Amino acid sequence: DLERALIKGLILAQPNNYSEALQQGLGGRPPHYLLRAREFLQANARETLSLEDVERAAGVSRFKLFEGFRRYFGVSPMSYLKHYRLAAVREEILASGGARSISTIALGWGFSHLGRFSVDYRKRFEETPSMTQRRAARRS
């Protein structure tokens, strides 16, 4: 079921208490090449990355990389990166207590088109980045 796989993929994009159980539900423990690719994406999430960079880090073909990501994480490699970046931006907005500029945070995480970033953020979190920032400012 595509919806279930997508939800699991979104949850798996940010490590949490349920990551291992969800990985098993999607297809067991990911092979080593997928773990390398995921670690590479997370370690270099602030950089401009291409699919070729991820392929090199994983040491496998594009087809194998896509198949593995879809099977174990429920999304493509670049979608995984986008979800990871969106979660990181959200965490940084909340941690800053609303004091840092959303643009600065988003650009720092590799989002070069701020309008597209805002649309993706709203789809993912059901609120705009500025709504998150206002909420963070009220809490601090």
TrEMBL record:
Gene3D superfamilies: Homeodomain-like. Keywords: DNA-binding, Transcription, Transcription regulation. Residues 35-135 form the HTH araC/xylS-type domain. InterPro entries: AraC_XylS_family_regulators (IPR050204), Homeodomain-like_sf (IPR009057), HTH_AraC (IPR018060), HTH_AraC-typ_CS (IPR018062). One of its GO terms (cellular component) is cytoplasm. SUPFAM superfamilies: Homeodomain-like. GO terms for biological process: positive regulation of metabolic process. Regulatory protein of the TOL plasmid xyl operons. XylS activates the xylXYZLTEGFJQKIH operon required for the degradation of toluene, m-xylene and p-xylene. PANTHER family: HTH-TYPE DNA-BINDING TRANSCRIPTIONAL ACTIVATOR EUTR, HTH-TYPE TRANSCRIPTIONAL ACTIVATOR RHAS-RELATED. This is AraC family transcriptional regulator.
